[in-house]
Amino acid sequence: MISIWFFIGVSLLVNGLLILGAGLFEWRNPPAHPTVHLFHLHANVWWGALLTLIGAAYCYFFKPGQKKA
Amino acid sequence: MTLPYAAVETSHLVHLAPVDLAIVIFYFALVLAIGFYLKGRANTGEDFFMAGREMTAWVAGLSFLSANLGALELMGWAGSAYQYGILATHWYWIGAIPAMLFLALVMMPFYYISKTHSVPGYLKLRFGEPARAVSSVSFAFMTVLMSGVNMFAMAKVMQIVLGWDINVSIWLSAGTVAIYVAFGGLRSAIFNEVLQFFLIWAGALLIPILGLYEAGGWANLKVLIAQRASDQYVHLWSTLGSFSNNPMGINWVGIVFGLGAVISMGYWTTDFLVVQRILAAKDLRSAEMAPIIGAGFKMLVPLIVIMPGLLGLAVLDQKLVPESVAAVTGAHSYNDVLPLMLARYCGPGLLGLGITALIAGFMSGMAGNVTAFTTVWTYDIYRPLINSKGSDHHYVNMGRWTTVIGVLISVGTAYLVMQFASIMDYVQALFSFFIAPLFGTVVLGMLWKRATGAGGFLGLLCGTLSSVGMWAWVKVDPLALRYVALSPNAKTLAQDMFQALWSFLICVIVTVVVSLATKPKTDAELNGLVYGLTPVPSVGNIPVYQKPVFWAGIVGVVFVILNVIFW
User: Fold this and answer.
1) What ipTM score was computed for the predicted complex, to two decimals?
2) What is the pLDDT of residues A5-64, one digit of tens each?
């Protein structure tokens, strides 16, 4: 049976990649008038990267056939 | 806590970029995929209704916590933090942690070894059929209503925040929940609750991180709140000496005894919606560890719920107002504070994740209610009262159909709430009627062997009726609040706390008096159901650091330290 943690990993990995991609795009093409506060911190880049790393780790350690839920 | 629906409907709080929509769509695809995947693993009653009783402590614990971490909770308590300050944290600490630890160490062994399918099922074993009938029928009725309320709340919030059509939101969420619960049963609901737990933290944790950065740290945040609101908003206990010294209009008696000793004990130990998650644990140690793990994380939840409300007080330019004022003026209400803070800090992608976390919270709230309803209907109403001779396969099919019917009733409730918004307030009040007396009945049943069936039934009935009576009294004559809550300065939340306290005491007194006047069961009949007559099974010969009592002690110490720090 596929571990629940694998599904969590897939969710974090996909969401992390999407957020990281959006953040990098926005970093290279900054809006003239940012709508969010603290835009200069580029939270979506480092938060997206963090989610991607955690998601990838979960996918690796709980990939189907490795561990039980 | 009120429904966040009165904000401006002509302009949306946030606008989603394509990447945000992709994240929302991916969430729906993933939960449906999980439901389809688990379809083949829910063929027996034990699988469908109890998730095969094979969940680990971590899965059961996170699911247990998530069942109470719905979006209504998140948005409502963030709004309460804006309205009442850090006092709202009591609902996460003293209003949860002692009860979770009590459930783990005292009550869970009984639920677990009695192998009951539900809390009403335990009442049947301990007090007989009448107590179960009262409990199961009222619980089943309330769960479908609450599921409908969740559905409507989600649709309304999505309309306000994103501009989505309310009908599309209702049917999309109902269809998704019906599919994944009907296919995978409780296991599917648990999987999605754990997924929701991660999504909520991933989507909401940035708000306190960036908010504290903007405010200049916790010390500076307290100064800003004192300047813009009052110093009373940042103290957990020091303002609770009297009703008039704090924005909540309550005192420490109401918080400690009403909330901590009765309401939270009632909710966390007898509400089948949350207890069902623990009953799915694979062994006794996991069943005891699950609430302790839940308690550990519960202590952290104020970071993503209370902190955004406090940050809103300090950094938002606009002043938020009560729902009633917002409905007239078009200003943002207290309950909008979480989406407002989300929009303040979260750009493309992060916004989608935050919105997905809210959607996940609403949907798992619905799924939790539907799975609890399905189990109680099938095992505590249909089987004992309608058809007691069906096969296991028959009851699983009944569970699947009940899931679909439960969701359809919820949709009907959602449309009913749409027509009559005040139903929302009544439903929440109704729920509170049963919690406190039910705790009195269950705890006396477990700890006092002299409690009889007649005592348990009449105590439960009188406790519930007294709660309804006090609520109706204050509804008819608001000045009666001074008698129910023992102070002319008491406010609404104080009423809830004292109403629960009195109804609990009435339940206990009636149960004791009637029990002493009626014939008790023999010791042999109570074996496995009452402390002192039941050999409580050991969690095994394991090292100290693996024992539930050790971790409960650590959680208890951290709980005390946190209360002292924020005194």
Assistant:
1) 0.93
2) 999 999 999 999 999 999 999 899 888 888 888 888 889 999 999 999 999 999 999 988
Query: Which of A5, A18, A50 should one mutate to test binding to chain B, selecting the residue with the greatest count of B CBs within 10 A?
Result: A18
> pLDDT per residue over B15-58, tens digit each?
888 999 999 999 999 999 998 888 888 888 888 888 888 889 99
| Residue given tokens 């063929």 in the structure block | B43
Q: Is B353 in Cβ contact with A43 (below 8 Å)?
A: no
Residue B141's Cβ-count burial label (10 Å; 0-12, 13-18, 19+) is middle
% pLDDT > 70, chain A: 94
pLDDT > 90: what percent of chain B? 31
Judged by CB atoms closer than 8 Å, whether chains meet at B19 and A19 is answered as yes
* Cα separation, B554 vs B418, whole angstroms: 46
Contacts of B495 (CB under 8 A, 6+ apart): B470, B474, B481, B484, B485
| pLDDT (0 to 100) of residue B514 | 95
Count CA within 13 A, CB hemisphere, residue B236: 19
What is the spatial distance between Cα A41 and Cα A26, in angstroms, rounded to a whole number?
12
As a whole number, the mean pLDDT across chain B is: 86
Grouping H, G, I as helix, E, B as strand and the rest as coil, residue B544 is: helix
> Average pLDDT of B397-412?
90
Residue of B nearest to A4 (CA): B191
Contact B281, B50 (CB under 8 A): no
Lookup: tokens for B43:
């063929």
Q: Which fold has domain B18-535+548-565?
A: Sodium/glucose cotransporter (1.20.1730)
Distance CA B174, CA B185 (A): 15
Rounded to a whole number of angstroms, the distance from the CA of A29 to the nearest CA of chain B is: 13
Best to test chain A binding among B195, B282, B350 (most A CBs inside 10 Å): B350
User: Which of B19, B20, B199 to mutate: most A Cβ within 10 Å?
Assistant: B19
Residues of A in contact with B343 (CB under 8 A): 36
Searching chain A, which residue's CA lies closest to the CA of residue B212? Answer: A38
| Residue of chain A nearest B54, judged by CA positions | A69
Gap between the terminal Cα atoms of chain A: 7
Residues of B with CB under 8 A from a CB of A: 17, 19, 22-23, 26-27, 30, 34, 37, 41, 56, 59, 191, 194-195, 198-199, 202, 206, 210, 213-214, 343-350, 352-353, 356
CB atoms within 10 A of CB A58: 21
Q: Tell me the domain boundaries of chain B.
A: 18-535+548-565
Q: How far is CA B231 from CA B79, B91, B93, in A?
A: 18, 20, 21
Q: Would you call B291 exposed, middle or buried from its count of C-beta atoms within 10 A (0-12, 13-18, 19+)?
A: buried
Other C-beta atoms closer than 10 Å to the C-beta of A36 total 20
Cα A1 versus chain centre, distance: 25
Q: Per-residue pLDDT tens for B165-218?
A: 888 888 888 899 899 889 888 888 899 889 989 999 999 899 999 999 999 999
- pLDDT single digits (tens) B316-340: 988 888 877 877 888 888 888 888 8
